[in-house]
Write a structure and sequence with these properties.
With about 210 residues, the protein is mainly alpha-helical. It has helices at about 10-20, 20-25, 30-40, 45-50, 55-75, 80-95, 100-110, 115-135, 140-160, 170-200.
């Protein structure tokens, strides 16, 4: 299980308060101080709330976004798993629409080589949260394959969304639908191939020492 960052109401309030300031001040303590003042909290708390600096702020934001997504996804209708995955991702994009520039800046920071581990952890936690919010409770080998596939789908969708200027993320959702349809075709092809292999006769295994 991937550990989440320290969860404190003060850290959550600081992140929520600083988000409108990030497009102008970046993921900095200056933005944290401004956010704390907006939230009615002491600005000097910025010095100890995020001791690891910028990456600590971004990791906390990602975790907070995951929690908001899971809470809101509980009200989604019960449908097919793929449809619920699509609905959960659409919900996440909608929730974060006001923070698009802050997310763009966060991704730029996480793209730096020395932040590769933090980027991988944030992505893995978010993908796991999407599957969990969609109702997937698998614990077998498919747990890994599902998350590997969704990592690619979600990553591509997020990058597309950052450039999307359509109303209500319409172009991004169409892009997501194409990616999910492609995954579905691969799954069906794999299922047919597995079925074909199961019907093939088994070849006898040669014992050690056999000459022909």
């Amino acid at each position: 299980m991937i550990r989440h960052p320290e969860r404190l109401p003060e850290r959550d309030a600081a992140i929520q308060g600083m988000l409108p300031h990030v497009p102008f001040d970046g993921w900095t303590k200056r933005a944290v101080r401004a956010g704390l003042l907006d939230a009615g909290l002491p600005a000097e708390d910025a010095e100890h709330l995020f001791p690891l600096g910028t990456v600590d702020m971004i990791v906390t934001f990602c975790d907070l976004a995951d929690r908001h997504m899971e809470e809101a996804a509980a009200a989604l209708p019960q449908t097919r798993l793929t449809a619920r995955v699509r609905a959960v991702i659409a919900l996440r994009l909608k929730q974060n629409r006001p923070h698009r520039e802050a997310i763009r800046r966060a991704l730029a920071v996480l793209a730096l080589p020395h932040n590769a581990r933090a980027a991988a952890v944030c992505t893995a936690r978010t993908v796991d949260a999407i599957w969990h919010a969609a109702g997937d409770r698998s614990a077998d080998f498919s747990w890994y394959t599902k998350r590997a596939i969704l990592t690619a789908v979600y990553g591509a969708t997020l990058l597309y969304w950052l450039r999307d200027s359509s109303d209500d993320d319409a172009d991004t959702l169409a892009f997501l639908d194409r990616r999910l349809a492609g995954v579905g075709r691969i799954g069906k092809l794999r299922g047919r191939l597995d079925g074909l292999l199961a019907r093939l006769p088994r070849l006898p295994q040669h014992r050690m020492g056999d000459t022909g």
